[in-house]
Amino acid sequence: MEPVTQKYSGKDLYFETIPFEAGDGFECSLIRVKGYSAASKGPILLVHGAGVSASIFLAPVNKNIVQFLLEEGYDVWLENWRASIDFAPNKWTLDQAALYDHPAAVKKVVEITSKPNIKAIIHCQGSTSFMMSVVAGLVPQVTNIVSNAVSLHPVVPDFSRFKLSFMVPVMKQLTEYLNPQWGLQAPTLTAKMVNTLVQLTHHECQNSVCKQVSFTYGSGFPALWRHENLNEETHEWIKGQFAAVPMTFYKQIARSVKEGHLMSVEHKKELPESFVATAPATEARISFFAGGKNLCFLPDSQIRSFKYFDDLRQGFHALRVLPDYSHLDVFIGKNADKDVFPLMLQELSVN
Question: Above 50 in pLDDT, residue 192?
């Protein structure tokens, strides 16, 4: 495909979409972003969370994470895995992403760049599923990882635990997906019921998708960001950034929350049932980032995962708790280029 040119902060960025086939034949894609100057630091892969797409890293702020990495000399790649809203809704699991999507994406980046090793920034369910690949030894080419929000130990607020335990089984009988777009258009009776519930209980702003996102993903008002960390344009932009998430995901994360760590659900021989039962099959250095005010996955999620890895190799990995940030504002916050990205750069620079 021919590269697409877009302007960010008045500068041209070039987006080249590269389709790739996951291990089970699912059609995913990579987006290679170029601009500013020639890459000098090698490839870095950015992996989005559930129910969004690779464009979540391109927030309309003064300098988003893609621009920041380009200016620092990285060859930036964005992965659209099967959870991306750029694809038709599908009943994905973290197992599928870990076994089929991420290893194929890494292999494709290595193949095209001819670089034997790459780095990665992974977020939310992109982080959990990618860490499953890491622990299982499926992405040995990845040597340095920045993980945001959650990795091996999902810890959620009490009300989220209640929703996972009691509301998810009910919702599975009514719908195959939850969709924050229901705040704009509720096409079914279930969608209308959910939207009514959200409108009755969420009064933190006038953005109907923002409120749906908080209901869908956490327990806060809002759950995925602090409003004061977003500029007005970004708060409006998020209306188009969230869509369908399958109940198959909620079933898996509910089990993992109950067990206290990630659990596989599809019984594939390449993946362990428990991802903390044996030592991780990786030499990668991992930096665990957590928003101190995260109401989707509590900071203890990353603290526990860091302690797990630190016990195995003391002093090698890193933990960064960001006291004034939540979940996704770590990337889309108006001041993240000053508060967060330089810290990520420091961790990525450690060999």
Answer: yes
